[in-house]
Fold TetR/AcrR family transcriptional regulator.
Amino acid sequence: MANVNTELTGRLVDAAARILVEDGPGGLSLRKVAAAAGVSTMPVYTLFGDKQGLLDAMHREGFRRLGAALAAAPRTDDALADLGALGLAYRDAALASPHLYGLMFTGGFGHTEAADATYRPLVAAVARCQAAEVFTGDDPEPVALHLWALAHGLVSLELAGKITGESYAEQLGYAGLAFLRR
């Protein structure tokens, strides 16, 4: 039964995210989500309670998917390569769930733990680069924030059709150059 609820929740969240992007916040209703997912309204109300419950679930699910993608990024003995793989995993997660990606970074949600859990791997990867003396500095936070802001901006540009995936990888590489130990 848990797998059925997980699968149904995923379908409903994805349907709601598409409606939110296509019709805006005013166009999102539990009834529309149910129709788009091909179910009655009963499971939607049972799973989410109300529209805010659905939005909260969408927000959590976006960060859950991002966290899973980051956790699946390879971890090797090469700290810099692993940092690059993390940046590519971030992009892949955003492109896999573009409708949720935009919602994840809007205000009004109290799931800071979910967001923070997806940021911590980046901080740890930068700290590994610093410990390996690949990057300068001893505080990974400002470097991680810079790299995250760049990755987020580039992904947003790619989702808007303004850049390509090749440009994303190239720009991440340029960003890393700023912190290389010379």
Observations:
- Residues 73 and 86 are 6 Å apart (CA to CA).
